[in-house]
Structure formats: structure tokens, C-alpha cells
Design a protein that fits this description.
Strand content: 25-35%
Number of strands: 8
Shape: globular
Structural class: alpha+beta
Distance between the termini: 36 Å
Helix content: 25-40%
Largest sheet: 6 strands, mixed
Low-confidence stretches: none
Strand order of the largest sheet: 2-1-8-7-4-3
Order of helices and strands: HHEEHEEEEEEH
Mean pLDDT: 91
Length: 148
């Protein structure tokens, strides 16, 4: 895919993220071994491999903590070759009523026309303060019970 096509796909994914809805575009455009890398050196910093692990272990944990699903609004997209870089801002409230409005820089890498890797940069101190430590039961390689 071209850089323009990659950018358009990521913009479509963020259209859903901005309206608190799951993106069917995301699910159908990821590689089987897609990787989500949470960068840094804090409890959430891990590499999650595979759509099910990403959906259940990482994003599932975030969904459990939010009052009404997650909302992330992207406002800057830069595409070059197989990479799309996105600046975004969260607009969320936890079930305990605490605001969780993180700032993100996401690097999306494509390979063979599919999303192969997502690298997340954010305010790690905010993550730990508001969401708490990442539970060991959800670490990559740990099985998570199917969500109801």
C-alpha cells in the first residue's frame, strides 16, 4: 500500500476511536502476528503479540477501567512509506470518576499491506497514577478469561 493509503486507513481507525466505537477496519487490517509495543520502563511497558492478546490483555484491561469505553482523538497524521505517525489525545473518565486524558504519539508500521506493529508513546506517570500498575495476570503469555 502507498503512504497515502496507509494514512487513510489509520485515519479511518481513529474516526472510530474518536467516537468510542470499535473499528472493524482495525481488526480486518492487522497481520496475524501484529505487535503492540508499550514503550518505556513502567509496569505497562510490554510487547503484546497477536490480535487476541492485544484485545484481551492490553485493551481489555483499559476497557475494564473506563466508565464508558475509550475515546482517543487524533489530530495529526504523518505518513512516509510503511509508517504512519499519529498525535492523539485521550478523552476518558475511569469508573472511579478520575479523568484519564493521556497524550499519545503512535507509530503504525505496515508490512505486506497489513498493520504489523503499533508503538505507543504516552505519559507513563499518568498511566500509573490513574490506571495503576499493569496486572501480572494480563502480561503477554498469560491467558485471560474471555470477557462477557
Amino acid at each position: 500500500m502507498s503512504a497515502a493509503a496507509n494514512k487513510k486507513l489509520i485515519q479511518e481507525i481513529y474516526t472510530h476511536a474518536g467516537s468510542r466505537t470499535a473499528s472493524p477496519t482495525f481488526r480486518s487490517n492487522v497481520a496475524d502476528d501484529v505487535r503492540w509495543v508499550v514503550t518505556g520502563q513502567y509496569s505497562w511497558s510490554h510487547t503484546f503479540v497477536g490480535l487476541d492478546v492485544i484485545a484481551n490483555n492490553l485493551l481489555g484491561r483499559v476497557r475494564e477501567l473506563m466508565a464508558e469505553g475509550t475515546r482517543t482523538v487524533a489530530f495529526n497524521f504523518i505518513a512516509d512509506g510503511d509508517y504512519v505517525v499519529v498525535e492523539a489525545k485521550g478523552d476518558n473518565v475511569t469508573k472511579t470518576g478520575v479523568r484519564y486524558d493521556n497524550d499519545y504519539c503512535m507509530i503504525w508500521r505496515f508490512e505486506n499491506g497489513k498493520i504489523k506493529e503499533i508503538k505507543e508513546y504516552c505519559d507513563s506517570a499518568l498511566v500509573e497514577r490513574v490506571l495503576g500498575p499493569f496486572p501480572a495476570s494480563r502480561l503477554p503469555g498469560t491467558k485471560v478469561a474471555a470477557e462477557a
